[in-house]
Structures are given as structure tokens and as C-alpha cells.
Amino acid sequence: MSTQETHDHGHGDGHAHEPQSFLSKYIFPLDHKMIAMQYLFTGMAMALIGGFTVYVFRMQLAFPGAHVPGFGMVSPDRYNMLVTSHGTIMIFWVAMPVLIAALGNYLIPLMIGADDMVFPRINRLSYQIFLLSALVLISSFFVTGGAFGGAWTAYPPLSARGDYNATGLGSSLWLVAVALEFVAFLLGGINFITTAMNARAPGMKLTDIPMVVWMIVLASIMFMASVGPLVAGAIMLLFDQQLGTAFFDPNRGGDPVLWQHLFWFFGHPEVYVVLLPAMGIVAEVITTFARKKLFAYKTVLYTAAATGIIGFFVWAHHQFIAGIDPRMASLFTITTLIISVPVAEMLFVYIATLYGGSIRLTTPMLWALAFIAEFLLGGVTGIFLGAAGSDIYFHDTYFVVAHFHYTFFPIAFIATFAAITYWFPKMFGRMMDERLGKIHFWITIIAFNFIFIPLFLTGAAGDHRRIYNYQHFPEQWTPTLQNLRILATYALLVMIAAQVIFFVNFFKSLKSGPKAEKNPWKANTLEWVAPSPPPHGNFEEMPTVYRGPYEYGHPDRELDYWPQNEPA
Amino acid sequence: MYERFFTAASTYARDIDYLILLILVCVGFGFIVAEIVFFGFIFKFRAQDGVKTQYVTGEEKSQKKWVSMPHYLVLVLDVLIVIGALKVWSDIKIEMPEPDAKIRVIGQQWAWSFVHEGADGKLDTADDIRTVEELHVEVNKTYHFLLEARDVLHSFSVPAFRLKQDAVPGRVITGWFKATETGTFDIQCAEICGVGHGIMAARIIIDSPEDYAAWVKKGGPTAFWAASNVKAPGAAKAAIDAPTPTLTANNAAPLPQ
Amino acid sequence: MMVKPLATNRSSSGMSTGKLAVWWLIASEIVIFGGVLASYLMFRLGHPEWGAAASHTNTWAGALNTMVLLTSSLSAVLAHQAAEQGDGKKAARFLYFTVLGALMFLVIKSFEWTHEIGLGFTLQSGGFWSFYYLAAGIHAAHVIAGAIIMIWVAAYAKRNEELQRVEYIGIYWHFVDIVWIFLFPLLYIAK
Description:
The structure holds three protein chains of three kinds. Chain A has helices at residues 2-16, 22-27, 32-62, 76-112, 120-139, 162-165, 168-198, 211-242, 256-290, 297-310, 326-354, 363-386, 388-394, 398-428, 434-460, 479-512. By secondary structure, chain A is mainly α. Chain A has a single domain (32-529), classed as Cytochrome c oxidase-like, subunit I domain (Cytochrome C Oxidase, Chain A, Up-down Bundle), CATH 1.20.210.10. Chain B is of the alpha+beta class. Chain B folds into two domains: 3-94; 101-241, Cupredoxins -  blue copper proteins (Immunoglobulin-like). In chain B, 36% of the residues lie in helices and 24% in strands. In chain B, the strands form two sheets. Chain B has a five-stranded mixed sheet, with no helix packed on it. A five-stranded mixed sheet of chain B has the order 4-10-9-6-7. In chain B, helix 2 runs antiparallel to helix 3. The two termini of chain B are 40 Å apart. The relative contact order of chain C is 0.17. Classes of the chains: A mainly alpha, B alpha+beta, C mainly alpha. Chains in contact: A-B, A-C.
């Protein structure tokens, strides 16, 4: 590969001298890092909207009928819109863009030692379509009838007809926005796969790829393989809404349950699509701060792949009581419980990685450890729902809500905070404030548990989801349950308030944090070889790889770390 | 708060409760052990000056067993849970006992209506008793319910029975229950069905054989009709336009024909 | 013209990056069409009466279109061959011929649809017709997109530039062809 060497040097220079206007640098960038920042900041902005919606509807649940400061009265139709928007935004416009698009874009080229993504223009297009999808979604709040209010799962016939959901235009805009968002991530996936497969630095074997890159690649493959049927379903549902077809209308020969299959065939793998990158982030952070080699690298990879594959055969556990053949439910109970094996094994591997380490509890490490501790609870509570017998009772109760928030919150927020605090020095060339970071961490984590443990209890007591006011159900309208709802709401207010600390820390450090050196955490992976922040083109000298990413505490070496690019 | 688990009003309610308990014990055990080991490691292996990290690849058999042993334990617990879950599931949803009586349950935006067999003991005859938001059943009698939906998906949930089943328009889904104690319990809609989802409540009244016979004789819902305030069709649409939560439990849609 | 990052020229996997991207695109398209076809089959098996609706489709028009697409695929292969030999002009000519096939396909399709709509079989005429227009419509959109990209690729190929793209668009075109080979028996022949 001598020709490639000459190529490498020739182009590495080309980047540094490229003149860039403000417009081409910040608005229409081709640089993967700038596109990552666009995704990150868009995701953060959408998280604020998603956070606002949850503030409003939790206030309504704690104090039914009261005037919510900053919003007003919450009528039942608005309540449904808020709940729907919260779910949709947090999954499709926060977890996906931040975990996969922002971190994937930022980390993949840097961690595999490339100067950019393979197709920078497709990358830029991907963000632009994503931005468009976000705008379409936001615009649906302002049309006649308001935003879609049929829950993020959008089950027809409710979602299919304006006279059922009272938000005819809003539900079509919702569908268009979701479909555009899928297109954006399919386009993004092209880059993730081709870059990770083809653009690795010389010497980087498959087993030298950092875990987070592997996980984002696996997640992109899962996303691509699962989203197709839902794209088809979205077109069919849009036709039902606007063109008078009857794919999902039982009165004219359609079948509403078909949508549920199409939706969950995507929807369940989607959980693993966001879980895997989060697992990858945690692997990077705990190895760095425990100064330990990742326990059984290949096992992690195999379990991730196994999770990905089995993840395609569990979708109907969302539909146990939806009217599907009950014998099918038995089958899906078995597959669902099988998937607990690789996921549990992944967590065991992470715990085993800590053994014999030298653990430093920095802010990113605290977040990564919290991810493991909290996700464990999210994982085990899923067993109650995956087991068909107990799901009869728990289905669509707050137990489900609490369960998936114990998985999604660690994924979308805890792992993201771990990633932001860990890579902040690289991204912006400055260190974050550790003290503010720790205060933010502790308040967020404690408040988080105070939100969702009460919701496990109300769910076990029978509170159903998406009910704007429990006083119509005498068995749920008891002082104890109401106190739990109020407790969860107060905890939420505390958690939202704590995010101010994060934003203060983020923007203060951005402006005036101490300058970061190239490798502040003494980590091994290639991104720490580049300057902080890396210029367009990333590396001063394109790196060559000599070893795996987790060689910490190697017995042959004085230093406790051994960067991937350092010759033996 | 645990009132729920003190009322088990159907034959299979306790089966589900014990299954939940079984799962709780299994996963609770695994969860607690994992968290203890996890926090133990964090505590034990804090960074200390002069102590070097151990270099463990985790690729050797002697090391891998520390991960594979708990993994087999998970598998064993899974098998245990699967057996319990499938037993309960099959008893409730697959194997249905012969019915003593049938009722028709109809969900629509946003009310439940019910058709009881009249004195002749048959559905779909002239003396059927139709009610809205009030289901009367007799204790210790096996009922098959025929679940229908008129417009969108609904879900027929009776928490005291641990019973839940989605109603799908265009289908008639059959399920069963046998109440074990008399009393009045909630029926809730458990699948979002539009603006009025939060008011789609009903009550199930479990009578002793004598009371039930008296209710049937009296002509069923007469008393209920007199007391309630069922609005005309279109009232439901008006509820959508109402700006504040003024909906009440009684803005039911018209009776099934 | 932007400077291509050196990442674009690397090839750790041994496969060219562009081809990898095309396969990714096709894989994601397969699952989309897979979703439509699986839904259709599930309905079709549950509704034997759809066969009666399907009998109103024009099998001969469908068969003719199959021939047209197969021929256009052949010329896409010939274009690839020419590009391999470095003859961009010849490759472009074959690509234009493929585009002609695409246009013919669309013309036949629009006659067919006009006729059927004239008989009163529209998108709203029941499950079979909804699927008929949906599946063939999505496929036709792919034909149009493929033809436009092909014109663009041919414009470069004529000047002997980016000849590798001739192969990529060819792979994509075979995929569009194969989708039709699935649609044709499912929508026209099964009655």
C-alpha cells in the first residue's frame, strides 16, 4: 500500500490551507466535526423542547386542572399532544441525533485515524434533511388542530383519520417529519459504515477499532435493517390520511394491527440502536478512568452483535394483548428473555473491567458508572414486561413508563453526559469545571431516581399511561398515589433546574475553561493524538496504528497507558 | 398504595401476582448481587498512589468464567421465569374454560357499553340488557366476553381482575374471567383512544346470585338511566372543543343498536 | 470543486468505497420494498377475493414492461463493460439507451394506469388497488430517480470522468429491475 502513503500526505496538506468563509465553515460545513456540532446543538435545542413538554404534563398530573406557569391550562387534547411530542422528540430528535449522528460523526473519523468522513457532502445533506425534519415537526405545533396527539407509536385507526384524532394536519406533518428523519439517518449511515470499513488508518485491524466505533456501526446497520418496513408503513399511513386509501382501516378491509407489527419491528431494534452507542461510550470512559484493558474485547463485540440479531425477533412483546394470536405471544416471551443474556453479559463484562483497576472518579467516569448502575435496573424491570403472563397486568401502565425511562434516560442523557464531559476537551480545546460537573451529576442522578421509582410504584398500583387526570378512576384517585405523582413531579422540577448548571458549565468552559492539552486523560485512542480541538483534516501527521485501543497497565511498560499510534 | 394487591377479584388474579413475585425474586436477586459486586469494585479499586493496575485481557478461560458463570445463572433464571410466564399466559389467554354466560363489551370514543344476556340466558335476543359504563356480573360464574371496538383501538382493563385485552375495530376478541368476590371495581381504557381517553372509565359491579337476579328482573339498567345524564351523539365532539377539562364521566356516545 | 478527503481513497476492506455505499443504499431499499411486499402478502393470503381485483390488471402490459426493463439492464451491463475498457463515450451511449428504456417503461405504465383509472380502479378502490398503485408507484419513483442519476453519470462519463460511477448506477439499476421482477408476478400474474 505504498500508493496510499503518498496519497495520505498529499491531502493532509490540502486541508490545512483551504480558505473558508463563515458560511462554508459554520452553516454549510463539510468538516465532519462541524456537522457533529450541528447535530449536537440541534439535539440539545430539541431536548429543551422535549423537557418543556414533560414539565407541563407532569405539572398537570401532580396538580390536575391547575394553571401551569409558562403554559396555562392543560386540556385533554393538549395533554395528548404534549405526551406525544415528548416521546417523539426525545427518541427521534434527541437520542438519535446526539448519540448516533453527533458522536458518530465526531468520533468515527478521529478514532480510526482518518481526516474526514468518506462522503462529506452526503454527510452535510444528512444534517440538512434532519434539520428540515425538526422544522416540520415544530411547525406542526402551529397548524389548525395542533400537533399530533396519538402517542409516539401512532397506532391507527386513531392516527389515520382526522375525525378520530382531531389533529388531521398535525398527524400528517408528524409522519412526514419522522420519515424525513429516517432518511437523514439512512444517509448518515452510509458514511458511518463506509468510513469505518474503508478509511481506517494503516495498521488498524478490526480488533483495534475502539468499541464505540464498533457500536455506532452496528447500530447503524440495525437501524438500516429495521427502518425499511416502517418507512413503507409511514407511506401507507400517509396515504390513508391524505389520499383515502384503507391500508389500516378495518371498515374497508384494512388491518390496524399491521401497523403495530411494522412499527415495533423497527421500534424494538431502535432501543438497541441507541443502546449500543451508549454502551460504546461507557466502554471508552471506564477503561480510561479505571486504567484497565477492556475485559474480553471480542466477547463484548459478539454480545453486541447477538443483541443486534436477537433484537429483530422480539418486537411482538409490545403487542401481547393487542389481539395477536396468543400462541405467538408465547414464542416472543422466549425470544425476549433470551435477549437478556447478551445484554446482561455486556454489563458483566463492564463490571469485570473494573476489577483490579485504578479507578478515578472524574465527572465522565461518574456518569459512565451511573449508566451501568441505573441501566441494570432498567434491564431487570423489562423482564416483568417481556414475560407474557405478568405483562397482562403491567402493559401500558406507568411501570412500563418507568422501565423504559430507566433504559432511555441512561442511554440518552447519562451516556451523553459521559460523552460530552469526556470528549469536551477534544471538541473545544478547553477543560470543563469538575466541581460544577459533579454537582450537576449528583443532583441529576438523585432526582432521576426520585422521578421514576415513584412511577414504578404507581404503575404497579395500576396507573395507566396517557391519562391526563386520574380522578375519573376511583381506584387510582387515592391520596397515596397522588402523593407519589407529586413527588415525581417535584423531582422532575429539581432535575430540570439542575440542567442549568450543566449549561452554565458548558458555556463557561467553552469561553474561559483552562486550555486542554492533546491528551488530558492519558487515553490510548487516536483522537487524543490530534490537536485539541482538531483542525479541518484532523491530524498534523496521519497516524499509523500498532495495537488495540485498551492497552492500559501493560506489564512491559513503565507508563500505564500505551497509545495506539506509538511504535513499539 | 398496595391496596391493589389486597384485592384479587378474579380466579387468575393471584396467578399473575405470584408470577410477578417469582420474577421479582429472580431478577431482584440478580440485580442486588450485580450491584453489590459493582459498587464493591468501585470502592475496592479506587486509585491509590504506587499501586499499578492489573493487566487482565479477559480472553483466557480462567478469566472468562467470571463472566460466563453469572451468565449461566441468568439463563437458569430466565428458564424459570419463562416456565412461569407461559403457564400463566396459557391459562389466561389460550385455554378458555367453558362459559356459564356471555357478555358483549363495546369500546367507542369515549365510553364503554355492555350487552348482558337477559332472562333467557342468550345474547343477541330481544331481552338483552344494555348498559353504558356499568357492567353487571355474577360472582363465581365463568364469563366469556366478546370484545369489540367501534372506531379506534381501546383496551379493556379491569385491574382488580388483572385483566387486560385490546379491542380492535373489525374484530371480535373473546376472553374470559370468573369473579371471586362481590364488590364494585374500576374498568379503565388502557390504550390511547383520543381526546377523551382519560375519561373512558366504567365500573364493574359483581353481584351475588340473588342481587344479580333481582337486577335482571328489574329490567337492568332502568335505575342507571334515570340517574345518569347521557348526552346526544355529537356531545363527544363538543367535548373536544371544550377548552378546559370539563369532561365528565358521562358524556357517553349513543347506545349500540 | 471540493478537495476530496483522503478518507475517500482509502480501502481497508478491499472494496471500493463507492460500491460499498451503493450496496448500503440497496440494502436499505430492500427492507423498504420488503416491508411493502410483506404487508401485501399478509393481506393477500387473508383475502382470496383480491384475486378477482387482480384479474383486471393488464398482464401483457406488465410483461412488456418486464422485457423493457430487462433490455435496459442489459445495456447497463454493456455500459459497465465499456467503462471498464476506459471508453467513456461508449459507456455514455449505452447509459442513454438505458434511460430510453426507463422512459419507455414509464410511458407504458402511464397508459396502463390511465386505462385502469378510466375503468374506475383508483387508489381508493379497495385493498388490492391501493397496494397496486403504492408498490408500482414507489417502484416508478425509483425508475425516475435512477434515470436522472444515469443522465448525470453519463454526462461525466462522456468526458471520461468518474467512470467507476457507471458500475455503481448499473448495480442500482439491476436492483430496480429485480424489484419489478418481484412485483410483476405478485401484482399481475397471481389471480
